[in-house]
Amino acid sequence: MIATAALTAALGMTVTQASATSLVTWTVTPGGAFTAVATNPTLTVPAATLDCASSNASGSLLSGSGNPGTGIGTITSLTFEDCSVIGIPFDVTSRNFPWGLNVSGVSAVPNAVDGSITGVDASISGSGCTADFAGSVTGHYKNDTKQLVINGGSLVASNADCLGLINDGDEALYEAVYAVSGNHTIAPD
């Protein structure tokens, strides 16, 4: 959940980022189940912004040391409450779980790791407007505050029927800060 970091610079190594990432394993403490809550998440396309009052997620993380960054966890549920576009109510439906949680490197943000959520698949529907979004989101997880910050990635609209506000191929930016339960810490081995 969590943009790709320049792992080489962060660890002071002189190898390519791809090869450095493949060499790094991760310790997750304690691991296992988590829940997460975000207030006021947004999904922005070129012509409109979907605002929601809140979002709730749940899933699980691997535990212990020696874990690969790819597939370090999964999201098994994601819901949204009180969503609207310019005051018009919208429903958001997330589907095709589980989604993958991945760590890509040590973040430039202090006490954090960068990563992504892959397999994202959701739809929105409101008065005269429906659209699907799929792809991945990126951001970072802050070990000290236990927050998952999502602020990048590539979500692409399809099956859009939305009076021209959302069109097939539009890229959407999802932004949210999730408070994560479970007191989890993710660090390189």
From TrEMBL:
Residues 1-20 form the signal peptide. It comes from the Bacteria. Keywords: Signal. This is Secreted protein.
